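Supplementary notes for students who missed Thursday's class. We covered one full example, reproduced here. Read the sequence, then the structure, then the short commentary at the end.
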Amino acid sequence: MGDGAYYIKRQLIWLLASWSLLYLAISTNLRRWLRVAGPCLLIGCLLVGLTLFIGSTVNGASRWLILGPLQIQPSELIKPFLVLQAANIFSYWKRINTDQKIFWIGIFCSLILLILKQPNLSTAALTGLLLWMMGLAAGVRYQALLGIAFTGTLLGATSIFINEYQRLRVISFLNPWEDPQGNGYQLVQSLIAIGSGGWFGEGFGLSTQKLQYLPIQSTDFIYAVFAEEFGFLGSLMMLLCLLLFAFLGLRVALRSKNNQNRLVAIGSSSILVGQSIMNIAVASGVMPTTGLPLPMISYGGNSLISSLLLAGLLIRCSLETNELLNQY
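Structure (token representation):
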């Protein structure tokens, strides 16, 4: 871009906005967030639908809307409100009437199908897994959950069969070295980056692969650059931090005194930890290549806002739990 600090400047602007939302999430009562979750989710679904008609297409996928100088990705920004509304629905699952159940399950399914249509199989799969896990935590019947799991797997397999680029990704993931200059190029370069890090890494800022050898090195494959610069020990430290985050999220959920807070904590933790695991798995060749950023680490304002808002909701759950415990 002709400016060595181009990405830093842009990310700092998004960081200020994200910190503001983080503070807002921590300082606002969770009941208020839960009240606005439904309308915000419906608006988010509308924006996701608009990407199919007036969205900006990048690498064959229409996931972004251009609003003046801003480029927003509705499928990222909708995640916190999806967690909140799912907590609203599943926490009272046995008490709400059938019409409400059908309406919101229809909205959830429509959202997944719209994301799948973009096409964005990875985010659609993550959304489905999130809702499934929150349903499981809320005590939804196992028969219903098994049926949903079967339907989701069938839908994903159908998407891979229909979309040639997804099918090629799966094939190249199985043996990227078969076509190292074609479909397997991205994964091969990622594995070279991870392997080049050795035990202690090349040093901060000294990655060779990020010098245009590794595509999408600042977002989807940021972990490969991290592994090259900080090595095996640095990567292990990152995984331990992720494990600690998962433990703390589970601890907050278990200590929560009401179902809504518990489900918000489970949903926020699941999406941040689950997306991180999927990103790392892709970069290390354990999963087929997908378009998921690494929360709070990848470059990108939409992902940063969504991640910090989810983290703020998790912290708010913990604060409200501590307030109740202090009262007792």
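Commentary. Strands lie at 56-58, 61-67, 70-72. The radius of gyration is 20 Å. If anything here is unclear, bring it to office hours.
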